[in-house]
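Quick one:
INPUT:
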């Protein structure tokens, strides 16, 4: 069994799509729009076969995203090497995104950084 896709609602679909395409080699489909409900979405595909669905609909609430909350915490991307974690972290930071932690080796042995990337949602970069 495998996870087929993970989905997240966002306010800015185009900016979110561009982030995953620019920094994490995602490939987007042409998108979907339900004209009756105003719902829009894209599926972003990654080399591993994993997919991320980004979605938007009218009148969404946007609650505070405290890092220590119940629910999903972050999406982690394996980028292949410590050097790539360092390089990509600096590139994303230079683009104006906040680095929440790292790059560092965690207590359980992961080399990672964590970026506050998409509307307060965390993206982890790891080997």
């Amino acid at each position: 069994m495998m996870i087929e896709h993970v989905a997240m609602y966002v306010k800015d679909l185009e900016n979110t799509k561009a982030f995953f395409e620019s920094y994490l080699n995602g490939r987007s489909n042409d998108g979907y729009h339900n004209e009756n409900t105003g719902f829009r979405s894209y599926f972003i595909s990654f080399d591993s076969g994993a997919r991320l669905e980004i979605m938007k609909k009218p009148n969404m609430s946007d609650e505070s995203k405290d890092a220590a909350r119940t629910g999903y915490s972050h999406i982690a991307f394996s980028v292949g090497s410590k050097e790539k974690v360092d390089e990509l972290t600096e590139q994303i930071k230079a683009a104006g995104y906040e680095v929440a932690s790292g790059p560092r080796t965690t207590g359980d042995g992961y080399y990672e950084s964590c970026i506050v990337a998409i509307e307060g949602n965390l993206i982890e970069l790891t080997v």
